[in-house]
Amino acid sequence: MQPRALLIESFRAAVAAADPQYIVPAHLPAPPAFGGRTLVIGAGKAAASMAAAVETHWPKQAPLEGLVITRYGHGLPLTRIRCVEAGHPIPDDRGEEATRTLLTAVQSLGPKDQLIALISGGGSSLLSLPAEGILMQDLKAVTAQLLSCGAMIQEINVVRKHLSLIQGGRLAAACRAPILALIISDVTGDDPTHIASGPCSPDPSTYADALAILQRYAITAPISVLRRLEAGVAGAIHETPKPGDAVFARCENRVIATPQRSLTAAAAVFSTAGVTPIILGDSIIGEAREVGKVFAGLTQHIVQHHAPFKPPVALISGGECTVTVKNAQGRGGRCSTFLLSLAIELNASSGVYAIAADTDGIDGSESNAGAVIEPNSLALGHAASMSARACLDRDDAWGFFSATDGLVTTGPTLTNVNDYRAILIQ
Q1: Residues 139 and 236 in one domain
Q2: What three-state secondary structure class fits 274?
Q3: 199 plus 275 within the same structural domain
Q4: Which helix (H) or strand (E) element contains residue 422?
Q5: Per-residue pLDDT tens for 236-270?
């Protein structure tokens, strides 16, 4: 198999390992006894495909209803569960309306009913119901700044939890029925409190933490946001439910797909092809272009010294890098930015190929999942009058890979277990 094809095949295996059609059915509970209702709710890039799996495997005679919210273009035709598409990564009015309807449905459940919550990455923006006194335009403004300032997703979600009526465990607090949350993890560490901002999970963070994050990144927050956070710090409004709160006694958060499992599936593809797979970790974080430099250094050492790993070898990793956006007109995402930085530092090293792609099928601002580099990528850019360095400096990784036939386009995969990276050293 050619190197590029092998890399793409490994990415497909990583995505397939998190396919809801295969992983959801084994975790479904039995219908409640004595005529109780089963309500299915969900939010995230995998919400529609998870709901479809529930519908396929739920007993036909058993009652089933619900509402899931997913990103535009990620919906599916469902028969018993309603699917709404809304804004991501910036929330919108459609998401707010759907979330309000969802919360009302949850509040209607009684102790004899059950709630199945389908949670996946992207749910933080899709499950958007601003707290009292905060307009959607205010939530949009602070979210946009947080996403472009280089903050980690865990930090962004701390702020979101404290500006929401439903996140940070508040959904669980609003439900009187037993809850089973089935979760596809897209965050480092796989802690449910950080996935979709933990609507059914205890929240250890505080209003003071949220305010400190805004100050750390010099976020110019709307006055309504600042007033709420300051009121929370002063104790004038209730905190999010904390670990040990009685509301979680009837709630189980079950992580059913993780980045590590997807990396393991990808590793098997390389092994079959006679390439030694080395999983470097599923929790790689940091500024994308800086992570690219670090990985380039390790790769060059292996090329020159055949140590600490002897080629042929594939360096596999997951996690979620960040991109501090300096050019608002830039095009691309964290995967393509990482890869362009890697290509520049490798400087056409012979026998080195790499892929970086988001398992949800969308890398940042464009419609591609990610990209690949080959030893001739920089030369192709030069021939197309595209300077790799200039593209990186103006946040236009997409432009470079579009001009060099490097884009990997899958369309929405309807799942999400974070980013996938593999460097193949022949």
Answers
A1: yes
A2: coil
A3: no
A4: strand 419-425
A5: 999 999 999 999 999 999 999 999 999 999 999 99
